[in-house]
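Late entry, evening session. Most of the bench is empty. Finally got around to the prediction I had been postponing all week. Sequence below, unchanged from the version circulated by S.P.
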Amino acid sequence: MSFTLELFGSTDLCQVLGECKRFLTQKGRIAIASVSSEGSHGFAYEAYEWAHRQFPTLVDCRPIALAQELQSAGFQVREQVMALMWVPVEVVVADVQARC
């Protein structure tokens, strides 16, 4: 999944990740790329966040802490890569944690 989760609000994001987890098998794995709130925050990032606040229907992706969101939803982060396009991008591969 790429640049999708940022479109959801915090409450909805939790539900979306819960559905992803429910859909995957017990040994399932998910790979996601997103605009990240982690990493370097330069002028481009600050301008992007300002544009998102001012024009949310045009600049609709809000930066998120992807690895933290996945862990909170019950995934185990296997790999995390930070990159810089003009804003920080986080790519995470995570496993479904064993269900009780």
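Two things to note before I forget:
The chain has one domain: 5-96.
The chain has three helices and three strands.
Will write this up properly tomorrow.
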